[in-house]
Amino acid sequence: MHLQRWITGLTALPFLIFLIYKGGTAFAVFIALVCLLSLGEYFRILEGGQTKGLLAFLPLFSMLSGMLTILAVHTFTGEIILCIAAFYFIICAFYSLTRFKENPAVLSKAAAAVQGYVYIPVFLSFAILIRSGSNGMLWFFMLLALIFAGDIGAFYAGTYWGKHKLCPSVSPGKTLEGSAGGLFANVAVGAVIKIFFLSGIPWGSCIIFFLCLGIAGQVGDLFESQFKRVAGVKDSGVILPGHGGILDRIDALLFALPIAFFFKKYILWV
């Protein structure tokens, strides 16, 4: 399993590096595709691992709206997210009203769809905002390096030293030692990044940023695990050998993206 994870990661890495370097429309289309696949996995999890429900109105509408959101943010500005999100909510609400009499459970399905829209397309939109901002390519590479470092640090620290459960009701395999190892890796890799690329920013601000990013990533990982736990599925998909699905791979990144954007623009002022 470890070897398979590394082979998959190293195979995909050159394509990811190229798309981040390229930026622009190519990067936006890539993020839109990631959004489409992730939303498909999200609704698959909600259906207990089944795919037949993906052809229903709410999943199809959500996947279309998700891609539209990503491409609209790339074409216009971040403000468009609020407009599309509002329209999306209104349409979901209207749909639930038309189906409520015959199936009251439609309200829960509509709520889950709205949650999925915020969770995936809205959060992924911050990837576009970061990449298109000042020093966007550098910041996106730094963000990925920090998230990957935390993921790897948590995985191996938990594997070799993990004894005390972090959140057994959600993910029995995760430990406090793994969590600490992930945060240590976040700060260690972040320190190298700070020395070479963020020399003008105080150490205290940088360390707080690295820790907040690491904590957000771990919360994102556990948040997705809740869905899988309830649905009784191990992975969100099978598209990435050794990693599971796309959502399994980006669950930490999803929560880290808005944190990174907020720190970059409003705290660190870079």
Task: Describe the model.
α6 crosses α8 and α7 (176-197) packs antiparallel against α8 (203-231). Helix content is 77%, strand content 3%. A hairpin with a 3-residue loop joins β1 (165-167) and β2 (171-175). It has helices at residues 2-22, 24-46, 57-75, 80-99, 106-132, 136-161, 176-197, 203-231, 246-267, and strands spanning 165-167, 171-175. The chain has a two-stranded antiparallel ribbon. It has one domain. The chain has 9 helices and 2 strands. The chain is globular and about 60 Å long. With 270 residues, it is mainly alpha-helical.
- Helix and strand composition category: mainly alpha
Q: How many individual domains? A: 1
- Work out the helix count: 9
The CA-CA distance between the termini, in Å, is: 40 Å
What low-confidence regions span 5 or more consecutive residues with pLDDT below 50?
none
**Any idea what the radius of gyration is?**
19 Å
Strand order of the largest sheet: 1-2
Query: Could you give a short account of the major beta sheet?
Result: 2 strands, antiparallel
The overall strand count is 2
Order of helices and strands: HHHHHHEEHHH
Instruction: State mean pLDDT (0 to 100 scale).
Output: 93
Describe this structure in a few short sentences:
The chain has 270 residues and is an all-alpha fold.
What is the strand and helix layout of this fold?
Layout: H1 2-22, H2 24-46, H3 57-75, H4 80-99, H5 106-132, H6 136-161, E1 165-167, E2 171-175, H7 176-197, H8 203-231, H9 246-267
Antiparallel strand pairs: 1-2
Helix pairs in contact: 2-3, 2-5, 3-4, 3-5, 4-5, 5-6, 5-9, 6-7, 6-8, 6-9, 7-8, 8-9
